[in-house]
Amino acid sequence: MVTYLLAISQCHYWLLRLSMKGGQMPDSNIAVLDREMFTEAAAARFLQISPSTLHWWLEGGVRRGRTYRPVVRPEPTGNRNVTWAEFVELGLIRQYRSTHSVPLPELRVAIDILREELGVPYPLAHARPFIGEGRKLLNSAQEQAGLAPEYCLVAVASGQLVLTPSTSAFFDRVEWSDDYAVAWKPHNDPASPVRMNPRQRFGLPSVAGIKTLTIWEHVQAGESDEELADAFGLSEQDVTWAVAYEMSARTA
């Protein structure tokens, strides 16, 4: 039954996308958003949140006799895998929950409004709400949702709508192409070349297409940065960044 419902949901989504694109087939950037990338446990590890919290954001649940809808998914699906679009949206929610402890009900309402207005199931995996005129829609959604000023995604500064620091930090960690999220920067340092790309290495953290875990394992085996750089066609700095990411992930 769950598989059947997911198929219906996917069909509805592509029909919606076709109508929005004048009947053309969806491009590869759209298709990759629905690609299942990680288990819930793996996604939680990469985002550095507890698996139970991630599952709650994806599926909702029942607490004290009250049923709560999901925050990320339009409705619960029972699927324990995480798509690329879901992973990106979870990244934003994680950013806000860790920085501001933003209330989930209001955030859920804001996402629902964006979902309806933009006609896409995962509006925060699209660049449109964060740039140009799209910020007006984002501002309207947060006002309708009743988000308090300290929780807002955009704010007015000198008469213009600007991204708040947490939103800006999220936006900068995503690489965008044609308004779609095509890569994620898992390392906090913006200078890091480590990327998670759904089209490379199954979305696992990598540098220039080489998994950071692979580089880490070679370092643990006693190989030098110079040797690894030569073996994998990387710079020694790339190797250093890969090892730094793996160390930080283990520390977290």
Describe the structure concisely for a colleague.
The protein is of the alpha+beta class. 51% of the residues lie in helices and 13% in strands.
Kindly name the structural category. alpha+beta
Task: Please state the overall shape, judged from the principal axes of the Cα atoms.
Answer: globular
Strands of the widest sheet, in order across it, are: 1-4
In the predicted model, the low-confidence regions spanning at least 5 consecutive residues are: 1-26
Percent strand:
5-15%
| Total beta-strand segments | 10
Question: End-to-end distance, in Å?
Answer: 38 Å
- Please estimate the helix content: 40-55%
Structure description:
With 252 residues, the protein is α+β, with helices and mostly antiparallel strands. The protein has 2 domains: 28-184, no CATH class; 188-252, Arc Repressor Mutant, subunit A, CATH 1.10.10.10. The protein has 11 helices and 10 strands. The strands form 5 sheets. It has a two-stranded antiparallel sheet with strand order 1-4. The protein has a two-stranded antiparallel ribbon with strand order 2-3. The protein is globular. It starts with a helix and ends with a helix. Residues 1-26 have low confidence and may be disordered.
